[in-house]
Prior knowledge:
about 525 residues, alpha+beta, 10 helices, 31 strands, about 35% strand, elongated, disordered C terminus
Amino acid sequence: MASFKRTNSKLYSKPTQKLTPDIEYWKKLGVPVLLKEFGAIDYIDFSPLEPNYFAVTCSVRVQVYSALTKLPVKNLNKFRDVAYGGSFRSDGLLLCAGSEESQVKLFDVESKSLLRVFHGHTSAVHRCFFTSDKTHIASFSDDKTVALWDVPCEKKLHTFTDHNDYVRAGAVSPVSPSILLSGCYDRHVRMFDSRTKTDPVFTVDHGAPVESVLFLPSGGIFVSAGGTEVRVWDALAGGRLLAKLCQHHKTVTCLHLASDNRRLLSGSLDRHVKVYDISSYRTVHTIDYTSPILSLAVSQRDSTVVAGTVDGLVSIRRREEDVATGPTKRKKVTYRNVGDFLPSSSFSHDTIISAGNQVLVSNPTKIKESKHDTHLRKFEYSKALDSVLSSYIVNKTPHVTVTLFQELSRRKGLINALAGRDGKSLASILRFLVRFIGDYRFTRVLIEVANCVLDIYGDHLGDTGPEACQLFVRLAKKLREEEQLTMTLLSLQGAMQMLLAGSSAGEANKDMMETMQPSDMARQNLVISVS
Length: 531
């Protein structure tokens, strides 16, 4: 006799995301720890020195946190107004920050001492970075200028005045201390060379106010973010556009490199961080947050990801290390002599392991049968349906309920399972139909169920009780809404097809005009003028 075949509930389950190495890698980031600051988190930067503290610029201070304890270890508060863009030097010993005071301030991280104050800007300085030679600082200001400062002499060396709006983004070349990159709200990204002291090396149009720019480690490619796009440019080719990344639906605010510069991360006001593969510029993962993101930083070896939000929250995610939980508990086994009788029906080939003159037989794993399958085995269709209409199954796994409806229909037992019900049990079925009949996975099956319910109870709705009558009205209203939505989508589909057809026809006419000879063009113009 063939064994009972269990109900396949995976048929209507939601499609799962394809598991890739990147998804597995980034899923190891633990549950975020949230820290509350006093204002929007303007900038976050990790120190290159162990133990890799990170600086959070917010309100009128720069706080340095430990990624392990999630507690502040330094507080740089020598600001009379809002601080911006606190960033470490490549050796981790010094930190520079701009401010609303139109100044750039230099701090000793260990002693928290204010070492230098650079005066010269006439408006707020939102970003400042150390150059690769460690002796200069580039600053980017709302006074529409970019400045280069000498740290030992505490004076300005160069000023670039080619922008026409606030300069809120900047970067320094990782290979040359004289190359600067600036992003402006005039939608342009400009590259400057302090050795020329003239016009920009080149200018590219991002198409939206630029919020962040970033050099790749080679220095020959840079990335700009603004609006809903991230664009990749070739600096060696004079600013040639390499790629457009359009994965966000709100303003992209920050960029950062990770995974030994093999991955690019972008944070946005849409509360998502997208992870891109640098080699193909394809999205490989998405990290979700609860608030719009303003700043982002990733530590070395991707051990910690820190994001800052507009509502003053600092989200810290630490990578979960694979720690052994101790010796594995051995399963209970039975030893039998080789000559003993082993019934072939009880053990599979994988459960019998030969060991010398003995055989090690592991206990077979017993698969627990679900309650509705037990009732189906006994042909108790009404009880099987009641078992999958419990609130737990309906809320957590509604596809199991729909699968049972389909199995009852296949067995010609759906009408028997639905008939003879009182008002309370009928109401549970109607509630399920009202809730899930609009789900595209379940619509076909649930329409058949709804038709059966109407056939059985349609002639005597008044006997089903007030609750069931109200649910019948709600079901009718739900079906009318779904019908109206379908008609709207069909009309929208027709309009889109007309637009696409017109666009393709226009391109075809353009190609035909380009291939026509001058004599053909003159003949066509003559025909048009005569007509």
